[in-house]
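#struct-help
A.M.: can someone run this one for me? Single chain, 234 residues.
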Amino acid sequence: MLKIKNLNVAYGEVQVLWDVNLEVHESEVVALIGSNGAGKSTLLYTISGLLKPKSGSIEFMGKEMAGLPADEVLRLGVGQVPQGRHLFAGMTVKENIMMGAYLRTDKVKIKEDYDFVMSLFPRMAERAGQAAGSLSGGEQQMCAVARGLMADPKLLLIDELSLGLAPLVVENIYDALEAVIGRGMTVLIVEQDVFLALEQADRAYVLDVGRIVMSGPSDELMDNPKIKEAYLGI
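D.P.: on it. Structure tokens below:
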């Protein structure tokens, strides 16, 4: 579904990603792990069209999309749940969630999808008329995930889902995500909790100082001594 080849990305004169190669297959969950500052979020921003690459290729379902603007990338079927939520604080929870569907015209399916995401996040249904800025951090993350799902993406990019959240909240959000994955959605997830990421994913890539240094099935990486020492503290 997604094929990245020799991708280089820079902020001005400062290069952040170097010759990145990565693939995500349909109905697969792939994790991107690495330390802070490794370039994980930069890679997601580049895939979703928020950053333009210096060179390299990003193919989605056979179509080259490197350098396309973000709205075109979304129209192709790539959605993102960004790090930091980025909700519209003065708008209601429902309005924020429905913003995810702003490019869609299939009204019946939009209603079905809205009901589905509300069933995943009952707390969002309870707070549908409440200003998003008044929600707790965990509730805001639920709202951001629900908004991402409302785009009905073929591929969902998720950036730091658990960052700063209580373990019980993280568990609830991942339970909801598992229900979505069970319906066949393809997911590329960046996660600070390496153990959690590897537990959820089929495969994973390790990004270190802008370069992919390791990849493979998640269970193999979980047992890799270098991963245990560098990221799991074992």
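A.M.: thanks! The chain has a mean pLDDT of 93.
D.P.: also worth noting: The first helix runs from residue 40 to 47.
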